[in-house]
Amino acid sequence: MVAAAAAVALVGTMVFLWLMLPQSVQDRFSTLQRATVIAFLAAMVAVLHALFRTLARAEAPGLTIVNGYKTRRFEWAEIVSVSFNPNRPWALLDLADGDTVVVMAIQNADGARASRSARELAGVIAEQSRTDRDR
Predict the structure, then answer these.
(1) Same structural domain for residues 31 and 59?
(2) CB 3.0–4.6 Å: which of 15, 51, 69, 87 could bond 3 by disulfide?
């Protein structure tokens, strides 16, 4: 929600500042300069949108991770564990093939909420990893 609010505030501020400029100043902007300002604003909104999209969703077939504009889906058998260290900005997903994947949806800046989310995800991974012998 913070990213969405920041995008709205950024666009609103830029429009407000543009409208506050006297017409004589606005007229001095060339088409290229106007396009550059709009492109910069669009790039900032695109970055904020990518942050807004972050997601970690546990479902019956597996886990879906969305980091920015990249979506990855993992079956439960592919996931070994999730680790969340206060010295890292995000949680890490450890995979059976030895690879790790950043889980941007669980970020250290969220404090206790992030720790709780990481524990919940670890519990779901443990539950989904259980075999019939374990039950």
Answers:
(1) no
(2) 51
Q: Report d(CA 49, CA 110) in Å as an integer.
A: 18
Mean pLDDT of 88-95: 92
Q: What is the mean pLDDT of the chain?
A: 89
Q: Report how far residue 5's alpha carbon sits from residue 74's, in angstroms, rounded to the nearest whole number.
A: 31
Same domain assignment for residues 9 and 65: no
CB 99 within 8 A of CB 114: no
Q: Report how far residue 108's alpha carbon sits from residue 92's, in angstroms, rounded to the nearest whole number.
A: 11
pTM over 0.85: no
Tell me the per-residue pLDDT of 37-88, one tens digit each, with 9 for 90 and over.
999 999 988 998 898 889 999 998 899 999 999 999 999 989 999 999 878 8
Looking at the structure, do residues 61 and 18 belong to the same domain, yes or no? no
Range of the domain at 102: 55-129
23-56: burial string, b at 16+ Cβ within 10 Å, e else: eeeeeeeeeeeeeeeeeebeeebeebebbbbbeb
